[in-house]
Amino acid sequence: MIKFLWKYKYIFLSLISMLLLVSLNNFSGLKIFYESERIIELSNESQDIIDKSLDDKNLILLAIEFQDSVKYQDLLDLSNVSLKISKYQNTKSVKSIFNERVLIKSSVIPFAIKILNIDNYDKYKTSLLKIKKYGSKFADDDLHSFLFIIKSKGLESDEQKRDYLNKLEKEFSQNNTKVYITGQIKSEIYMQDNVTKELLLFIILSGFLCSLVLYFYLGNIKLVLINFISVCISLIFSFSLSNILFGGIELVMILIPAIVFIITISDFMHLLNSDKLYKNKFRSFKTQLDKIGMPVFITSLTTAIGFLSFMFSSLIPLFRFGFITTITIFISLFVIVILYSLIINFNIHKNIKNNHFLDDLIFSIVNLKKSYSYILLASFLVLSFLAFNNFKVNNFLTDEINKNSNLYSDINFFDTEFGGIKPVTFIVKNENPSLSSLDSLKEIIIKHNFAIDFSFNDFSKPDNNDYLIKARSKDIGSSKSAVIFDDILLKSKDLSLDLEIAGVGFLFDKISNKMTFEIIFGLIAAVIIIGLVFVLLNNFNWYYFPISLIPNLLPLMSTIGFLSIFGFYFSLSNTFILAIVFGLIVDDSIHIINAYSMSRKKGLSIKESISHCQAYTFKAVIKTSVVIIFTLFPLLFSEFKSISQLSIITIIAAVIALLFDIIYLPKMLIKYIN
Fold first, then answer.
1. Which domains occur in the chain, in start order?
2. Letter string b/e over residues 594-620, b meaning 16 or more CB atoms within 10 A of that residue's CB
3. CB 499 within 8 A of CB 488
4. Cα–Cα distance between 430 and 445 in angstroms, integer?
5. Distance between CA 110 and CA 108 in Å, rounded?
6. What pLDDT digit, counting tens, does each position of 25-69 carry?
7. What are phi and psi of 129, to 5 degrees?
8. Separation CA 301–CA 199 (nearest Å)
């Protein structure tokens, strides 16, 4: 195989170049998916509940905040704007204080009155007394802020959605008002626009920082350029493949550039880490692939296994991410090997500068005092215990949104002023429920801090007379919400009501928790498979099972334990990140284990084998860890929480894994692998 790759390297290079041109042509018009309704459709709930939940995607919450006290003319202007947007082609309905009615129960026969009348100034003054007495769902107590619940229709394309949102903001914007808009449509557009910007920005910044670090290590601008080219080729192939197969890329695929950077640079660092050069170019190529090629392939395989676990997810975006990333890993490996053959053929690898700083760093870490190493190990164990002790699964609708973003600011305004942004629909299935039972149910819902927007009988389908209560709650997390939903269902039975719960908010909690556990189990399966792969590759030596897993699991658990001090919990996004991180940090320990095993098979003593690892493999491991830190540093400032968390979790895990691999892994190898 090595001879075949060397002999036909130029043919393979031509093939890569042609595919690159095709991919670049396909790269234009790349679409980014953010379709949360696809998650809902995977629910095991009835189709009726799913349909009612998906209808929430057309819901837009818009609020106006007056800086000064509201005047009669302000309300007249606002009423005209509300009337104007209700006549838009893409507006189905508008609910606001201008059409709000309050049910008066003081008389024998309850009747509804209009809460606000602005036909003339006298009626307006009378209305203020009514609002003060009965309150309003669409205005705060001081009449500084007003809520509009807008139901859109016919917004199919992203451009239509952008235009509609811009029209709303423009119509409601006045000199002394501030406009807040939220809803699934707003979130989708906001994220798509920012993902595109971040994707380009982070690739440029990460590439620049990565290039600086590589030049510091190598002192060879040609090698730095080749590394960067290999990353670009792999990324273009990856996104183009997703575009061909799926018509675009998923939101989660914004993580792929960071992953490709880490994998590609790591493999290059190990391939360029040669202790002997030969005049015969093929011999140099073959010797290095014989020595490093297998561990590089194994690291690609084990990393791929981590990402393959996503392919068993019933969540479409995660399945696609797992598939594309797995293919990308092996595409990157092929590109790296072909470009490495050219590096050897043109002697570009010569004159790599020797960095004595790394030698001094390795010496200081390896010769760490025993007392310090015991304290460090005890710290890892304590942190791992904290990870188990503080295990908690929770999901928030705003998990993905950076707390400093404009989108989060809008959402927080609705949570604070108007009951929240989490849509929940309560469906009463009884044919003729009593008014008293329905009123009692509404009181229970309100006591749980839900804001009820409206309720009605649903006659959208034949033989359907379900009574619907459309409500919203604050984004308090799936754990607390589950307790509340269970309590409402239990109390509805006491009222003899056949109650079902739907809505994007409810199904998001239910499905995201399910998917979180699904990813955790997938990660556990991937960990076990990686351990078994090592046992299989080493003649069923079962000592390799714990040795291949402990150096990776303990740093990961220590990282989780450390983050749990600051309130870490397992959500769909960060569990997904942990699976990625495990796939990335496993590489370095594999290279050390493989370098030691190969040295022992060549007849070197245990001491000589460890010395060989310290002299060569440790350098590549440290280089890789530093590259990871610098490459992921720009991601700390991402608008999206999952992106910033990928950076935080990976950097912490990489540092802990590096310390464990250099200090404790050699001791484990000496004791168990003779």
1. 2-30+189-389+510-672 (1.20.1640.10), 57-182 (3.30.70.1430), 414-502 (3.30.70.260)
2. bbbbbbbeeeeebeebbebbbebbbbb
3. yes
4. 18
5. 6
6. 876 666 776 545 455 554 555 555 555 555 667 889 999 998 877
7. -70, -40
8. 26
User: Could you read off the pLDDT of 536-572 as tens digits, one per residue?
Assistant: 877 788 888 888 888 888 998 999 999 999 888 888 8
Question: For residue 635, which amino acid is it?
Answer: L
* Residue in this structure with the two tokens 């959208």, named with its chain if needed: 460
Residue 119 has which token pair? 């036909």
What dihedral angle (degrees, nearest 10) is formed by the CA atoms of 591, 596, 600, 606? 180
Tokens of 229: 């080219």
Contact in structure between 338 and 293 (CB atoms under 8 Å): no
Q: Which structure tokens are listed for 494? A: 């006491």
CB 318 within 8 A of CB 576: yes
Q: Which residues of the chain have pLDDT under 70?
A: 27-30, 33-56, 105-112, 175, 196, 274-277, 312-314, 351-359, 458-464, 674
Count CB neighbours of 129 within 10 A: 9
Tokens of 371: 């007392």
Compute the CA torsion angle 130, 133, 134, 140 (nearest 10 deg): 90
Contact 213, 447 (CB under 8 A): no
Query: What does residue 120 show for φ and ψ, rounded to 5 degrees?
Result: -150, 170
Give yes or no for a contact between 170 and 162, defined as CB atoms under 8 angstroms apart. no
β-pairing, 422-428 vs 111-114, is unpaired
